[in-house]
Design brief:
Blueprint lengths: L1 H7 L19 H19 L5 H4 L4 E10 L2 E5 L2 E4 L4 E6 L8 E4 L21 E5 L7 E6 L9 E6 L4
Parallel strand pairs: 1-4, 3-8
Antiparallel strand pairs: 1-2, 4-6, 5-7, 7-8
């Protein structure tokens, strides 16, 4: 009787009469508890509300960078309207290098490093910029630096408010 109680509680007999490893004494239960706690933590995080910054994210506006011909390139659409919180996603559609540079902007705009985005060189590469306090309300002219004179220009109108 004492021997069976010891096995049920996870304690091996002192004489080592039972040669099989006991899951409870080999850390098996502890590992299971850790896995269960990890799974519960993951589920808890999945149901928590998103960060407040995510709640303020507005509409995602997609602008494609397209090669119309060997000598004609374009942003499609090339006229867009956005408000603070919106995200402009520029999507490369070819292997011709394209970028976005904001050139003519309203007073009060301070884009810093965001004034010129990286060169995208492969299909489906993207460059995103969030319309935030760096953008003053008004018209912002943008171009693809190497293809500006081949028609690759656009206008972003940032609405006042927020």
């Amino acid at each position: 009787m004492a021997r069976s109680l010891l096995f049920r509680r996870g304690v091996a007999p002192a004489d080592g009469a039972h040669g099989k490893p006991n899951r409870r004494t080999d850390g098996g239960i502890m590992i299971r508890r850790i896995i269960l706690l990890g799974a519960l933590a993951g589920l808890t995080l999945a149901f928590l509300p998103a960060d407040k910054a995510d709640d303020t994210r507005g509409e995602v506006i997609v602008v494609k960078m397209v090669d119309k011909s060997p000598t004609e390139y374009a942003f499609e659409p090339n006229v867009i309207t956005a408000k603070h919180g919106d995200v402009i996603r520029f999507v490369q559609t070819s292997t011709t290098p394209h970028n976005v540079q904001f050139k003519d902007v309203p007073a009060g705009t301070n884009l810093g490093d965001a004034a010129m985005g990286p060169f995208l060189t492969a299909p489906d590469q993207t460059y995103e910029i969030t319309i935030d306090d760096r953008f003053a309300a008004g018209e912002h002219k943008f171009v693809c630096t190497p293809h500006e004179f081949m028609g690759m220009t656009g206008t972003l109108t940032v609405e006042a408010g927020n």
